[in-house]
Amino acid sequence: MSDPIVVERLIAAPPSVVYSYLTSSEKWARWQGVDAIVEPESGGEFAVSMPNGTSARGEFVELEPDRRVVFTWGWESGRIAVPPGSTTVEIDLHPEGDGTRLVLVHSGLAGDAWSLHADGWPRFLQRLGRVVLGHDPGADPASETPEDAIERLGRR
Fold first, then answer.
1. CATH fold of 5-154, please?
2. Per-residue pLDDT reduced to its tens digit, 100-140
3. Which of 7, 25, 31, 90 is placed for a possible disulfide with 127 were both Cys, Cβ 3.0 to 4.6 Å?
4. pTM across the whole model
C-alpha cells in the first residue's frame, strides 16, 4: 500500500454546515456524484453514483457531529481495483476563524487507484467549498471514465 492521501482545504463555512454536507444524501450529491445514499450512523450505508457510471460504496464507521466522519470506500464496478469498503476515508473538521479546516485522509490505496483518488479528492473538496456557500460547483471531475483519468494522469 502507498502512503495515505492527505488533503486539507479551508472552507468558508462553520463546521456544523460542512458536517451537514457529509451526512445528508441530498447535500452530498450536490458536491460529489449524481446521487448518494448517506445513512449517518455507525454501520450505516454510504454510496455515491458518479456521472461516468461508476459507483462507490462503503459504510460509516465513526461520526462525531460537527467534528469527524469516517467511512469505508471502494468501487462496485471492476473498473477501479478498489473493492467496496476496502479503504478508509477519515474527514476531520477543525474550526478556523469563521470557517472550517477540513482534513481528509484516505488510506488503503495503491497504484493507479492511489493516483486517481489523489487527483480526485482535491477537486471534489473544492466543489464542496463552493456548494456550502450556495455557488455552482462547476464541472464534475467524475465525468471522465476511470480509464481516461488514468491515461491523463500517466501523462503528467
1. Alpha-D-Glucose-1,6-Bisphosphate; Chain A, domain 4 (3.30.530)
2. 999 999 999 998 899 999 999 999 999 999 999 999 998 77
3. 31
4. 0.91
